[in-house]
Amino acid sequence: MAKVVLGVAVGVAVAACAVAALVVGRRVRTRRKWKRVVGVLKELEESCETTVGRLRQVVDAMAVEMHAGLASEGGSKLKMLLTFVDNLPSGFPILGQYSMIVGVPPVCYFGMVFEFLSCCNLAALSVSCSCILPWSEKGTFYGLDLGGTNFRVLRVELGGQRSSFDRDVAQQAIPPRLMTGRSEDLFDFIASSLQHLVEKGNDSEQSPIIKELGFTFSFPVKQTSVSSGILIKWTKGFAITDMVGKEVAGVLQQTLARKGLNMQVAVLVNNTVGTLALGHYHDADTVAAVIIGTGTNACYWERTDAIIKCQGLLTTSGGMVVNMEWGNFWSSHMPRTSYDIELDAESPNPNDQGFEKMISGMYLGDIVRRVILRMSQESDVFGPVFSSLSVPFALGYASMTPLMAAMHEDDSPELTKVARILKDDLKIPDLPLKARKLVVKVCDVVARRAARLAAAGIVGILKKIGRDGSGCIRVGRTRSDTKMRRTVVAIEGSLYTQYTMFREYLHEALHEILGEDIAQHVILKVTEDGSGTGAALLAASHSSKSVDNVQLL
Ligand code: BGC
């Protein structure tokens, strides 16, 4: 009997030990896996490091590439495209000055662009004209803004007085099928939206007076004049192959004619240029514009003598807006991770738009998705690897970034918003709090790197145009005695305007790179709907009615 009891006791003890060993073993394994998950985050943090020293190297590289892109066609990954916008609308007219230079009646004042365009691949000497906004002008001007995910149509009523205009804006998401289909379908859609706005307003479609239109086309275009240009390539997930190499304004003009719309494309501009125009209209110290939305880009005011690749370019203003297409910028100083490399390889445009892929809304969310996927492969804390995590751009282009922002900015103690997004959108239910905290941290690292790189890009422009404080006049001995000109950068795009943490990181980095004394003179100003409204203002200033008054030099 005693033997039996002993046997049972030993059996129970062995079983207990086995269970304990199992539990301990599982715990050890879980802990090990968790350590690996934390390791993924650590590695990400290290490879996304953006010290001020590193950012300053990016600043220098940006300025160097700008010089190279201005020096020769194809001299840099930065295309530094001419825009033929050689005067910007101003809410504070400086009309007298221009009437003296050009000698035209004071109704409308012109700056003129004379281009020796052998360097710009046009056979003959051509003359195009532009003018600063004739504020005596009244009328209705239209803006069409084809950006990344959305499409806007605007009507701007000019009241004939300084700073007086009213806007009517209609916004629509671009159906994804139109982004990769035929150009005819996309342009039909654009023209129909415009037709709708015209019909909605009091402007009669049948009116014999031709309506002027500013077309904001937010893709790399080689401009041949202020109102025409050839599409170089698509970005932001657009891939309408039959459109590449075509003259964009011409295609729109033909579509408008087909629809019976009595409208004329007066200007064709990049969205950064529209933003700069509106920014400058409100504040004459505005020298550059930056967009950080689905895609990213910048433009700025450049002296014509610095545009070496187009020698002989002459404008009465002595300058011209240059569309940098900075989305394609690249520097070895940029902190690149394995996620960036994979994303690039699986994107619709590999080896292209390197800066854009680290900064803009189309990509940030997908970088976050890739890191969470890696984490879920390291540990079952995320559950099985879900298909929603495995597919690149699973939620559609740019859709993941607003979710990323919402998770990043969830300040509830239990991270309830994070839990809901993971469950509803990424199909990861019941993630424990400690793992949800990790997800927030991933969003933070990715957004912070993007914002700091964008800040470095902005300082790169300031450096190129001598507004970063490095070459400014000192009135005393210390840096704080430095005399700096007030410098305004117009800024637009959902990442900057709607993602608070992103915006704060960008400002923080600007201050770190420039130093407080200089940074206080640099102002980033949001221009609401600037890309479209600015284009309509430019359409007014380049109106064919005005062009009738042009006197060539
Ligand atoms: C385009 C630019 C545009 C930017 C912001 C980029 O992908 O190449 O032309 O300005 O996105 O929309």
UniProtKB/TrEMBL annotation:
GO terms for molecular function: ATP binding; D-glucose binding; glucokinase activity. Residues 41-91, 136-281 form the Hexokinase N-terminal domain. Keywords: ATP-binding, Glycolysis, Kinase, Membrane, Mitochondrion, Mitochondrion outer membrane, Nucleotide-binding, Transferase. Pfam families: Hexokinase_1, Hexokinase_2. Transmembrane segments: none annotated. CDD domains: ASKHA_NBD_HK_plant (cd24020). Residues 288-540 form the Hexokinase C-terminal domain. InterPro entries: ATPase_NBD, Hexokinase, Hexokinase_BS, Hexokinase_C, Hexokinase_N. It comes from the Eukaryota. It is found in: Mitochondrion outer membrane. Its main location: mitochondrion. Pathway: Carbohydrate metabolism; hexose metabolism; Carbohydrate degradation; glycolysis; D-glyceraldehyde 3-phosphate and glycerone phosphate from D-glucose: step 1/4. Gene3D superfamilies: 3.30.420.40, 3.40.367.20. Its EC number is 2.7.1.-. GO terms for biological process: glycolytic process; hexose metabolic process; intracellular glucose homeostasis. It is a single-pass membrane protein. One of its GO terms (cellular component) is mitochondrial outer membrane. Belongs to the hexokinase family. This is Phosphotransferase.
